[in-house]
Specification:
The chain has a single domain, classed as Methylamine Dehydrogenase, Chain H (7 Propeller), CATH 2.130.10. The chain is built from no helices and 20 strands. It has strands at residues 2-9, 12-16, 23-28, 34-39, 46-49, 55-59, 64-69, 74-80, 87-92, 98-103, 108-112, 133-134, 140-142, 151-154, 160-164, 172-176, 181-182, 196-201, 207-212, 217-221. It is globular, with a radius of gyration of 17 Å.
Length: 228
């Protein structure tokens, strides 16, 4: 389940659930009632709200990423994540400039949102009817991880992306999104991260919190930022 803290549908913040058979039920967090459902062409495994909450990204076992218009309940775009067989995570940068898609083999593809064709949005397609598949090339294919990527988190300023897999020890990397460069100076082989289950940046980007399988939260200071 994903909550759209800043997302709105008729004035209400939304929560999106991953259902069976490709369904994505939508609920109002204000009324606690169902407000609709999206229907993917394949299975639904991962969802992420875009900034402003008017769009939602979803992906599933078939490696296809869907971009949804939450107001009209229609699919704006549908594309195959390059080289992906089974999608395990998806994320949108806070500014909406980048999409990140993770797979079960550890590859994370970083896309520029402007490169994703949206042929389905202009024709008034009914809810659940996906647009024709497109094939945007990733701005960067990140191959530093080797097991299923289950954590993707952008920093609040959109400049960094943390990607991690809980299936391998110390499997966490931080990426500069504009250049697609993976920071090589951290974490190091001596950084005691463990098996990463979650990660999040502080509002000012000055800290990165990492939760691991031992139930610990490790807090790291990012000295590039003066605010926290």
């Amino acid at each position: 389940m994903t909550e759209g803290d800043e997302s709105e549908h008729r004035g209400d913040p939304l929560a999106a659930f991953v259902g069976d058979g490709g369904s994505i039920p939508l609920f109002s967090l204000k009324t606690r009632c169902s407000v609709g459902e999206l229907k993917m062409s394949g299975t639904a495994r991962n969802v992420a709200f875009a900034p402003g909450g008017r769009e939602l990204l979803s992906s599933g076992d078939d490696g296809v990423v869907h971009v949804w218009d939450l107001r009209m309940r229609r699919c704006l775009a549908r594309f195959v994540d390059d080289g992906c067989v089974k999608a395990t995570s998806v994320a949108v940068s806070p500014g909406g400039r980048h999409y990140a898609a993770g797979s079960d083999v550890g590859v994370v593809n970083l896309y520029r949102a402007a490169d994703v064709p949206r042929a389905g949005g202009a024709a008034g397609a009914p809810a659940g009817l996906p647009a024709a598949p497109g094939a945007p090339a990733p701005a960067k294919a990140l191959m530093q991880l080797t097991t299923a990527v289950d954590t993707l988190r952008f920093s609040p300023d959109g400049q960094m992306l943390a990607m991690a897999s809980r299936l391998e020890r110390d499997a966490l990397r931080v990426v500069h999104t504009e250049t697609g460069t993976v920071f090589s100076n951290w974490p190091t082989s001596k950084t005691p991260i463990g098996y990463v289950h979650s990660a999040a940046f502080s509002p000012g980007c000055g800290f990165l919190a990492v939760g691991n399988a031992k139930g610990r939260v490790l807090l790291y200071r990012l000295h590039h930022y003066t605010s926290i």
